[in-house]
Amino acid sequence: MAEETDQDKTEAPSQKRIDDAHEKGDVPRSPEITTWAMLGAMLLVITLFWGSTLPGIHSLKTFLAEAGEGGKNLANLGAYQREAFSLFMSGLGAVFAVVVLAAIAGSAFQHRFVLSLELVTPKFSNVSPLSGIKRIFGIEALVQFAKTLLKMGAVGTIVAFIMMHEIERLPLMLTLDLHVFVDLVRKAVITMILSVLVIQTVIAGGDYLYRYVSWYNKLKMTHQDVKEEYKQQEGSPEIRQKLRQLRRDFARRGMMKKVPKATVIITNPTHFAVALLYESDMAAPICLAKGVDVLALRIRAIADEHRVPIVEDPPLARSLYRLVEIDEQIPLDLYKPVAEIIGYVMRLKRGQRVRYSSMRGRE
């Protein structure tokens, strides 16, 4: 048999195939979305909490103002250092925590939660030289290389443009108050991150779309895959046939147990037999059992054994067998002929001498 190729995979992946891939940790994921989420978190932190650095700026100004006072400055140096270090670490810790949460959220946003040991299980393909060459020179590697060049070029251009603009203002910024200087730096950082975030949005969206399409195409199935999966879920045709036969046998055994309760058995006389039940509180008679040939003979034998009336009406027997199912009411079109037979049976039970003539021209 020829080896299957991607061109043979023309069928969409089944839900089972997708679920199996998920259990193995094989899900579409883009690290660019995680990077995008981290950049967004950094922008949010800088925008909302930059003002919390003002106490540290005041301490820095005091330290610089006392720089020429020697001993006094040395006495306060330790306190300034501790305060500055505390503010720096608290700010850094907050930024780090928010960025880590953003990275987790960026990963969780892409797919359902994955917990699979296959992600950390060593694989021979990971150390195989041939597999390594394919990863380095394959289509995936070329796409990632092109994406990296595009990203570096775009981000580098934005950073260079902003830095060139700020360098021109540097002599003026050195003469400003420290609070104003820090605020200008804040605005420059926000502008830089926001610009990079816009570029990262485009890159992340394109990268996720590419990875999702590649993942989906990889999970596609051939016609043979579909057949094999169906066999695994439903069993082989032989097993299904056997199960259907067993269900029919169980149904027949249950059906035969109902025959003694029947009001009347309508026959063909030997080819068809239909057992009907009617009681005064019923809207219409229901079919308890039906059969042809051997099964019909068995129904007649049970009816004879339990003294259930048997009425021969070939056209009606064939119509009932064809139109009514087990435990269902008879169709409206057959109400009248069935009512005639049931009336005939009821009168017989009351000891009345009556005669029933089948309507042979009914069909």
Strands of the biggest beta sheet: in what spatial order? Answer: 3-2-1-4
Helical segment count? 13
Q: What is the number of strand segments?
A: 4
Number of domains: 2
Mean pLDDT: 76
Structural class: mainly alpha
Description:
The protein is mostly helical and 363 residues long. It folds into two domains: 12-230, no CATH class; 254-349, secretion proteins EscU (name from scop, 3-Layer(aba) Sandwich). It contains 13 helices and four strands. It has a four-stranded mixed sheet with strand order 3-2-1-4, with helices on both faces. Strand 1 (264-267) and strand 2 (272-277) form a beta hairpin. Helix 2 crosses helix 4. The two termini are 57 Å apart.
Q: How are the SSEs ordered, and which strands pair?
A:
Elements (H helix, E strand, L loop, with lengths): L14 H9 L7 H19 L4 H12 L5 H38 L15 H4 L1 H9 L1 H35 L4 H42 L3 H12 L2 H22 L5 E4 L4 E6 L8 E7 L1 H12 L4 E3 L1 H10 L11 H15 L14
Parallel strand pairs: 1-4
Antiparallel strand pairs: 1-2, 2-3
Helix pairs in contact: 2-4, 2-8, 3-4, 7-8
Could you write a compact summary of the structure shown?
The protein is mainly alpha-helical and 363 residues long. The protein is 66% helix and 6% strand. The protein is built from 13 helices and 4 strands.
Features:
4 strands; single chain; 2 domains; mainly alpha; 6% strand; name from scop
